Amino acid sequence: MRTGIKNGKLHAVNIYSLKLLLLFIIPYNIYASLPDPKNEGKWVIVIDPGHGGRDPGALGSFSMEKNINLAIALKTGEYIRENLKNVTVVYTRNDDSTVDLIERPRIANQNNADLFISIHSNWAKNSGVAGSETYIMGVTKDDENLAVAMKENEVILLEDDYSTKYQGFDPKSSESYIIFTLMQNVFQKQSTDLALKIQTQFTERVERKNRGVKQAGFWVLFNTTMPSVLVETGFVTNAAEEKFLISKQGQDYMASAIYRACRDYMNEIDARSGISAVKANEPDLSSGDYKEGQVPENKLVFMVQVATSATGTEMKPENFNGLNEITELKANDRFKYATGKFDNYTEAVKHRKKIEAIYPDAFVIAVKDNKILPLQQALEQKRKK
Q: What percent helix, strand, coil does the chain show, rounded to 5?
């Protein structure tokens, strides 16, 4: 049987080639080397300026996409570094250099990134098309989204020995895009949340036409192991938008919008633990951890909450995606379930990162005498000791 995608539906593709491609992709999706130890306990944001070097990207009347992408990306990183104290920014490129498509998600995975943001500018045959849109990894649902993905994936064809590196993936063939229907993105909700925030900032603060949050099969998003988005800041084929995107003010506005979306996303996540992303790093606290069982009396520890229930749940691994050492806590007539017992807040943050793939919404809590304390209060107590 031969299947594939056309107009959002399956049609012909070579299943043997598909199997070879999946054998290549599945190990790569879980690939990650040891992160930089200086980043432990910090948010890590990888910013990817699309195209670059020998690949100019989309061409406007007097601009090249690669230059717009780089300018907005660098400004975004500057905003983040200046305003978010507990964040490390990593660029896939910071100059007009060539970075193969396969290397971009690899950089994010190697750095154990928390967010991956790929910045692009769009192109259309119709010069009247305008607006900003943000993509997440997903099934291509219509021809327009597929065309955008094909355009961005075409950079593969400029790479040496691309057929071998990408195991026969053809960015110009709709048949190749069946692979994206067979893999589930565990960070889809988080990616969507970030994408929505970016689009809101573009619309409300920069007054860009909102083309919405969309899904498509982008290779650069498919191979990341964290919440990831691809931002199309505007159309260089539209005279007004091209002028805006090459201007210092326009680039500054777009970068500021992306920064604010990251800030709001991070604060939402960290607020569940009582920590604000705009605060400076918390100092290292005393080290040590605890074994399975009740929290020791009069001991203040940090844990990672993974679930809550109104009726209670039997504490066995199969009920918690295979996690052991689950502790049940009662608060506000609800049962809270947490894992790990750490004397050190930073160690609890590390533990949250380790289980993020199976519990993306997990967050750090402080516990004393089996009661949940406000985290900021707990950190103050630790600091005074």
A: 40, 20, 40
